[in-house]
Amino acid sequence: MEFVVDKVSEDSFYENLLLGLPKIMEEFPNVTDTYLDRASPVPHNIICGWEQKNSVLLPEDLRSFYGSADGILYSYKYHFREGCDENILKGKIEVNNIGNLNQIHGYEININPGVNMDGERYILKLGAESKVFELEDLNNLGKVVLVYINSRYFPNIWVQTMKPEFYFLSDDFTTYLRMSIHHLGIPFWQFSYTEYGIPDSSKMLFRLMLPGILPLDGKIEEIRKQFEKPQDEDKSIIPLNRLDLGIFRTYFRAPAPNTSSIIEQNDNSTVAKKKTINRGRPLTTVVKRTNIKK
Predict the structure, then answer these.
(1) What are 96-106's pLDDT values in tens digits?
(2) What is the pTM assigned to this prediction?
(3) Mean pLDDT for all residues in the chain
(4) What are the residues facing 269 on neighbouring strands?
(5) From what superkingdom does this record's organism come (predicted)?
(6) What is the DSSP string of the chain?
(7) Is residue 285 a contact partner of residue 255, using CB atoms and an 8 Å limit?
(8) Beta partners for 143?
């Protein structure tokens, strides 16, 4: 048996890669100058050469990505005032091309590398065998990095601050790219997963473009802690509404009869049973008892 697969057009590829975001942004109010850099695929020998040079294997999803496009850059400009060129913020979704997927240094080396939990936060400890590669530069605030703790670990995506400190973003590249699309590439959205939070300009853009997406009055970790607190620790955070079960009417339940309607009379009561028709589920009969005076 043979299968014939049509070649995917370039437009269709990027539309699927970005989950239709470019078309949505073109119709978004106050958004102008949308730009998509269409990069050529990376040849297989170049990908293998990068892996040999850095002594690591790219994760399968990132390898497939570079096999389809040598990085990506989608950007747009948001005008806070229509027709005004002064109050502008530039959003972007970017992944470095393989030539700029460079190894970076300058982090602390630990004897026992790994990932530990400190409350609600993942603490990354890098060792002598660890390797960190830059996926995206976040100007003067930090970088999005691909982290190999050692050869036995699959790499993960973290945001590295200028200190440097590492904050976990996602398990794999596919999830990170979807997160970028979900946040519309708003500048520094990655820092909502850090203790520093996002800049005020990005907060304003979130309120205008994605209201309700982020807890803008606090960090994501702090909001999560509040919702996960036991009720007896701090009952003042969320008021509880108690439900009075007395408002519900109580019925007796009995097995379904074989006939459509049966009337049984005795000295004390009359029992009315009515067949319930419900395909695909067992029959349920509601029995209501009423005393009869002689």
Answers:
(1) 999 999 999 98
(2) 0.71
(3) 78
(4) 291
(5) Eukaryota
(6) -----PPPPHHHHHHHHTTTHHHHHHTSTTEEEEEEE-PPPPPHHHHHHHHHHHT----HHHHHHHHH-S-EEEEEEEESSTT-SSSEEEEEEEE--GGG--EE----B-SS-EEEEETTEEEEEB-TT-EEEEEEEETTTEEEEEEESSTTS--EEEEEESS--EEEEESSHHHHHHHHHHTTT-TTGGGGGSSS---HHHHHHHHHHSTTSS-TTS-HHHHHHHHHS-TTT-TTSSPPPPP-GGGSPP-EEEPPPSSSEEEEE-SSEEEEEEPPP-TTS---EEEEEEE---
(7) yes
(8) 137, 160
Q: Higher model confidence: residue 132 or residue 14?
A: 132
pLDDT at position 235 over 90: no
* Region(s) of the chain under CATH 3.40.1580.10: 10-228
Take residue 133 and report the two structure tokens written for it.
């590669």
Model confidence at 246: pLDDT above 60? no
CB proximity list for 230: less than 8 A, separation 6 or greater: none
- Fold classification of 10-228 is SMI1/KNR4-like (3.40.1580)
